[in-house]
């Protein structure tokens, strides 16, 4: 196996928003993240791809500390991840996360889903929170669904609400973990279009996805993971037309 890496300048700059240095994590005997070095610049869109079980979700989850790490360091906007308490709640608000399974609050309306975090974590005023929520719901194309419950919406609509909910916290970075994998095919594009627009608007994004069209058109960089390691990183054109590692070649030959 050839290991190829085009890691950028190792010296952090003011524009480095997410920095992982030599991050390691185990689940028991499984070394799920191995010496991960990854720097994401402000405004950058990084697509993470790789075989199932390679550690992509775990990587995302360490960035907002849904998972702890065993060694190494993670910084968001120059600050190490807090361990607990209010600081951690604020970090989670700064790092928006969208999951495959939407994870909306089932017993709250769409509007409540998008105001809750603003009220609890950001201590926003109720009226302002609702106005912001309605604007965001309009922006992701579900403004007319505000008073419904999640179960009354399609999967594509629910996922767009989940995106609006994360955006309501004014996150510095958005993590998407296979946001379209649970959707019926006809709903995939409506979610990808919202993500494309976010990328165009300059949001810093880490996107785990099998949607190679999205990777080609929206990503600044593709990170390919296998067996807990970053095996290869490259601009999308370069990665898709000329993958350098055997692992990436093999992976692409199966999915393209
Ligand atoms: P991916 O998202 O690339 O499919 P994951 O990060 O979900 O990979 O998982 C990487 C490996 O870690 C898999 O072998 C998975 O079974 C294992 N794993 C993930 N979460 C846990 C956990 N909470 N406890 C034990 N093993 C886990
Ligand atoms: Mg996963």
TrEMBL record:
Main location: membrane
Topology relative to the membrane: Peripheral membrane protein
GO molecular function: ATP binding; ATP hydrolysis activity; ATPase-coupled polar amino acid-transporter activity
This protein's UniProt keywords: Amino-acid transport, ATP-binding, Cell membrane, Membrane, Nucleotide-binding, Transport
Reactions listed under catalytic activity: a polar amino acid(out) + ATP + H2O = a polar amino acid(in) + ADP + phosphate + H(+)
InterPro entries: AAA+_ATPase, ABC_ATPase_HisP-typ, ABC_transporter-like_ATP-bd, ABC_transporter-like_CS, MetN_ABC_transporter-like, P-loop_NTPase
Pfam families: ABC_tran (PF00005)
SUPFAM superfamilies attached to this UniProt entry: P-loop containing nucleoside triphosphate hydrolases
ABC transporter domain boundaries: 18-252
CC annotations in GO: plasma membrane
Cell location: Cell membrane
Entry EC no(s): 7.4.2.1
Family designation: Belongs to the ABC transporter superfamily.
Protein name: ABC-type polar-amino-acid transporter
Organism for this UniProt entry: Streptomyces phyllanthi
């Amino acid at each position: 196996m050839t290991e190829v890496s085009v890691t950028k300048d190792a010296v952090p700059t003011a524009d480095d928003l997410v920095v992982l240095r030599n991050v390691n994590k185990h689940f028991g005997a499984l070394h799920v993240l191995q010496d991960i070095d990854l720097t994401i610049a402000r405004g950058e869109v990084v697509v993470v791809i790789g075989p199932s079980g390679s550690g992509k979700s775990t990587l995302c989850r360490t960035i907002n500390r849904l998972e702890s790490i065993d060694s190494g360091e993670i910084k968001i906007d120059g600050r190490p991840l807090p361990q607990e308490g209010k600081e951690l709640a604020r970090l989670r608000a700064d790092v928006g996360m969208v999951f495959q399974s939407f994870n909306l609050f089932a017993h709250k309306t769409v509007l409540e889903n998008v105001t809750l975090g603003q009220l609890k974590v950001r201590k926003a005023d109720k009226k302002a929170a609702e106005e912001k929520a309605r604007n965001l719901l309009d922006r992701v194309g579900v403004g007319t669904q505000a008073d419904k419950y999640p179960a009354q919406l399609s999967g594509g609509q629910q996922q767009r609400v989940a995106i609006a909910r994360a955006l309501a916290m004014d996150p510095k970075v958005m993590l998407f973990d296979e946001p379209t994998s649970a959707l019926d095919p006809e709903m995939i594009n409506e979610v990808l279009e919202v993500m494309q627009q976010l990328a165009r608007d300059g949001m810093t994004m880490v996107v785990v996805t099998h949607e190679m069209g999205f990777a080609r058109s929206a990503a600044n960089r593709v990170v390919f993971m296998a067996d807990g390691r970053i095996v290869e990183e490259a601009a999308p054109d370069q990665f898709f037309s000329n993958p350098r590692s055997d692992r990436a070649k093999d992976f692409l030959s199966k999915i393209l």
